[in-house]
Amino acid sequence: MKITILNGNSDADNIKFDNYLKKLSSLLESSNHTINILKLREIDIKHCIGCFGCWVRTPGQCIFKDDSHDICREVINSDFVLLAAPLVMGFPGAVLKIAMDKLIPLVLPYIEMVNNKECHHEKRYDKEYPSIGLLIEKEDDTDSEDIKIASDIFSRFAINFKSSLYFIKEIDVSVQEVADEINRI
Amino acid sequence: MKLTVFNGSPRGKKSNTTILLEHFLKGFMETDGNSYELVYVAINRDVGKLVEMFKDANNIILAFPLYTDCMPGIVKSFIDSLKSLRGKQNNPGIGFLVQSGFPETYHSRFVERYLEKLAKRLNCRYIGCIVKGGIEGIRVMPHFMTKKIFNSFYELGKAYGRSGKFDQMLLNKLAKPEHLSALTRLFYSFGKLIGLVNNYWDKQLKENNAFEKSFDKPYMR
Q: Do B72 and A50 touch (CB under 8 A)?
């Protein structure tokens, strides 16, 4: 599989998190996956200002010239995307959310009924959208309710992203366990 | 009552969130002695100042549009910057306003749960969350419909200005529809067929001479 990892660790001093992803990446490469890690804190992403230019001016592309074009290109051409970020205030940190907001060029502005009951946006690309996994690092006060909330919100995101959330994992499990989970997809 | 409002719309002043807040605040100011200050998270990027304002506030409203099923990235940046206030004594009471483009309120219920937990995490008294769907449409909605919505926000602000609470009945009223009714769903499906519902987008695409590119797939390998 072609796998893109969005590393949303905003704290350069949190070496543990980056190292975990590095290890995961080499393990997955040894299982013949192609891995691309995008370190979001080091690339230029202008936050989405809700101008809808990517829908009505330059369809499919953000009007800003920033690195979000590379993110969209990598993501849409992947089979699996791992969204990875330490929790900050109970939810993956802002760097990841800023990047996720910039994925909306990958869908159309048009609305369709999903499962005949809910409004969602239509696909832009006639292909299977990448499956999604979420990898987090807990904070000192993280409880099961926080994990459930994050998991539910990312599952909702996945519906709008024409995909589904395969798993949510914490980095206190072994790298092998996460790799196995991805290998099962 | 003194209120501090954080407008978290990435569009800043020219936003639907601003419009809804205006009506809410108009109602809020009906009670003598009430005052508020309003800051735009997207414009005021001095994070230190925003945190100070939060710390010094008695009552807070944080308002934003739903972005990819959650708060916009810049609002998350703001929330992340409040880390040092976690669990402190005497943190302000906090209420939220989440509005979405999708017509059903249900889309916003997930971030609502996060916000309630956030209030707890910050040791803030949780006032509640105003949730309203279908707001992107207010630009093209007939006047009688927007009038009804705006009036509800005014009434909600008025009651909040008096009691410091969100009126549950008004919240429920605004939250309709939680899900689309079978009839509305039928209308949506039908509307899609005849190109009515999506006309809003097509019109803008045409205005920008981008209609032929509507379905472009620029990143396809």
A: yes
